[in-house]
Structure formats: structure tokens, C-alpha cells
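Working notes for the structural subgroup meeting. M.R. asked for a predicted model of this chain before we commit to crystallization trials. I am recording the input and output together here so anyone reviewing the notebook later can reproduce the run.

Input as submitted:
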Amino acid sequence: MKKDVFTGLAVAALLLFGVSAGNPWALAAVPQESAQGGTIPGTPELIRQIQFMLQTVGIEPGPIDGNAQALTNRAAHQFQLLNGLPITDITNGGPISTDFLEALRRQAAAKMGVMPTPGPPPGQAAVTPTAPTPPPGQAAVTPPTLTPAPPAAAPVPPPPPPPDRFASCQFDPKDFVVGGKQYTPQSFLDEGFGGSTDRAVTNLQQRLTEARNIAEKIGGTALLEVQRQARVLAYFQCRQTIEQAAK
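Returned structure, recorded in C-alpha cell form:
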């Protein structure tokens, strides 16, 4: 859906996670229950964190405001269906399944993890493939030399793109990586906000305020997410100024 673009950006929602002695990915403010199939009450803080985690795994929950409305429940039902969990509603003050919370927490943590590149076993050097050696008494076979085909006619280059009137607005492409997909500022604007810069600025300001409030409680790497969201907002505020001046 269109607003899924935000999912990854809030994607990146390190704001969701605190650090505990037993589990570095445990939520800072979510109560834990060890019994499988248990429930905990849906406080506004817990629902806000569930909304952030749903965004992180790529499902749009609507506003991150701690209120379980229709969009939040639609996102929760989608996650439950994809993971073979019972379909239950998320309500303010109502019971929330700890099985659902644990599955959501694990997947959100995995989205933020970095998978290492496998190397050779300890004590074993990397093996570089070599050409096979011919049997004794048999000369090595030299592959025939192939005559390259004549080059194809060069295609007609497309016309140059029109000048970018927002070229003076600086941005970091890494700030627009959402769910592993690289967006341009324009495709991000089109898919996330229907192409409206004014709508993007208003929504980004609200989400940045919410992110700062949560970052103050969590601290640490959560501040990096706040800084990234602030850079994205500054870029679209620059575009908004140019658009208003052209009216």
C-alpha cells in the first residue's frame, strides 16, 4: 500500500528497542510473560511500540499514536495471518497475546540485524579455484580462440531529463532505503504521500516529534533514527520552500 514506504523509514525503528541484561532486543517498556499463550494489558505505550514494530516489519499500522484504530488492527491481523497466529484484535486496555508480541519482536529485531558473510572454517585458508591439471603424458588442451562478433549498432540515447529544480536540496540516498529497497526522494514522495510535499512535511513533523519523545526514554542508537528522520524532513521542507516560491 502507499504508506508502506513509511514503514521502513520508521523501518528502521531502532526506537522500538531497548537493552536488557538477558536480551539485547527486548522492548524497554513492554512487560514480559514467560507462559506461552498469556496476555498483557494493551497500554497506550505498548500499543505505540506495537505500531512501530509493525512498521519495522513492513506492515503499515496507521498513525503511531498509541491508539488501536482500524489501521492498527488491519496490520496486526495481517501479521497474525502471515505467521499462523490466532486472529485477535488490538484494543486500548484490552488483552494482547504474548505469543503475538514475541513473534513481532523477533521479526522486528531481525529486520535491524546484519547477517555476516560466511567465511572458511577457523584455521582453514580460503580456497582459490584453479584450472584442472591434465593427466601425466597428456598435453594441456588450449581452448580455441573465438572471433568476437561485430559490435551491434549503438542504440540511440534517450533525451536528457529535464533540469531538477530541487537540485539545491541536499539529501543522503541511504536515508531513503526502505525495507531493503532504494527509493529516490520523488518515488518516496509519490508512494508515501501521493506526491504532495505539504502532506509529507506535516506527517514527517508529527512522526519526528513522536520519535524524539520515545528516543528520550530509550537513548543510545535510537538517537540515530531521530537524526535520519530529521534529515528527511529537512529535505522536504527545502522542496516545500521552492514549490511555494514558484506559485
